[in-house]
Amino acid sequence: MNIVLLSGGSGKRLWPLSNDIRSKQFIKIFRTENGDYESMVQRVYRQIKKVDSDAVVTIATSKSQVSSIHNQLGENVGISIEPCRRDTFPAIALATAYLTDVCGISEEESVIVCPIDSYVESNYFEALKELQNLAEKGDANLVLMGIEPTYSSEKYGYIIPESKDNVSKVSTFKEKPDVATAKSYISQGALWNGGVFAYKLKYVLNKAHALIDFTDYQDLFAKYETLSKISFDYAVVEKEDNIQVMRFAGGWKDLGTWNTLTEAMQEDIVGDATLNDKCENVHVINELDVPILCMGLKDVVVSASPEGILVSDKEQSSYIKPYVDKIDQQIMFAEKSWGSFRVLDVEDESMTIKITLNPGYKMNYHSHERRDEVWTFISGKGRSVVDGMEQLVTAGDVVTMQAGCRHTILADTELKIVEVQLGKEISVHDKNKYELEL
After folding, report:
1. How many domains are contained in the chain?
2. Using CA atoms, how far apart are residues 144 and 60, in angstroms rounded to an integer?
């Protein structure tokens, strides 16, 4: 399979576990067979490789998510980076040009596009293989997957096929309706539009060239910020006459809210929490190092992270976004390509951060103009480099850096460090990067 996974969104509907860097697809809440936890990204990637070990997977995403993707999936996954957000048509056009111009895949080959955050089982990916085969060998320019509705939903657009065959021409599309209208659509055989489709690469390349003036991937990337925001549905799907839909009746969930996310959780508690025997339909996800006790609650989700604490009725949790929009807070936790960091304390002229550096990785060699830093190593072994001078570090060692000096850390084993930043203007933008020669 050639498959493009669309990874977007700020994840505000799953606050406080998600933020502008750590979107919902990177939250580790699904227990694996070995007892660890994996994220939506890891789960989908694992499922694809289980169905097709040779699958070529490309993730279309923003720059802010690249570090999290590498942290969770490794360095070998393909990534089509959007310089900025321009909706799904520019993103898919850029990913298509990336596959042909950078990866060298023939324009005659077909590709599948789907969201990265759907909760599905292996039969979904078997269906994707069939979808790609229809695009490869069929006559249609575009083949959609239509999800058999399980209820009258207001959250999805609808595809109305011409027949009830497994594969049918599309009659029309309908926007997200109210419940009564959705029920009417379903009585006509309508299917949910889950944003899953397949096409030959040359088809979307031709559409892109017709709507955008560019020569190749590099040119499109350079012009990306000037492109108009438009969805793939509006730009392509709803204007295409030669289009088919393939029915899918397997399990499929869009985990976009706390309500739907908790429905997919295999257990009631992730982290340190206790529910008394009067609790009913309560889920707790706790990333803090303090216990949570719930008593007598019903239909409630509780989530705690360094970003904040949510206690909500499950149904009401779907309406969280406008309230989160009013919260102005710096990022308190993020995964990077080299590991992760968590903010422990913020004062007017200091910030304390716990850093975990993965074995074999290093930070950028960098300096700060307006702050001093102190590193206290609490576990592991590695090497610090300060103004070109390298020294071995281990638990108990302390390294100090004055403003302006260049510094980095290289991890020989997993390293855990407490970093104290001291200064009157502490900012993520106060950073100069350099090449490191050892």
Report:
1. 3
2. 19
> In terms of domains, do 23 and 113 share one?
yes
| Contact status, residue 415 vs residue 382, Cβ threshold 8 Å | yes
Q: What is the pLDDT of residues 296-341, one digit of tens each?
A: 999 999 999 988 999 999 999 989 989 998 988 778 888 888 899 9
CA distances, 33 to each of 25, 36, 285, 324 (Å): 20, 8, 19, 34
The answer for residues whose C-beta is within 8 angstroms of residue 206's C-beta and 6 or more apart is none
Q: What is the pLDDT of residues 108-150, one digit of tens each?
A: 999 999 999 889 998 999 999 999 999 999 889 999 999 999 8
Does residue 360 come out as left (phi exceeding 0), alpha (psi in the -120 to 50 range) or beta? left
| Token pair 């609650």: residue | 297
DSSP notation for 166-220: SEEEEEEEE----HHHHHHHHHTT-EEEEEEEEEEHHHHHHHHHHHS--SSHHHH
In a domain, 306, yes or no: yes
| Beta carbons within 8 Å of 126's beta carbon, 6+ residues apart | 51
Question: What would you report as the CA-atom Rg of the chain, rounded to the nearest whole angstrom?
Answer: 24
One-letter identity of residue 210: A
In degrees and rounded to multiples of 5, residue 40 shows phi and psi of: -60, -45
- Structure-block tokens of residue 340: 């992760």
Distances (CA, A) of 1 to 89, 109, 261: 21, 10, 28
Please check whether residues 369 and 231 belong to one and the same domain.
no
Is 217 within the bounds of a domain? yes
pTM of the shown model: 0.82
Residue 144: helix, strand or coil by DSSP?
strand
Distance (Å) of CA 89 to CA 66, 113, 119, 363: 20, 11, 23, 35
| Residue 324 forms part of a structural domain | no
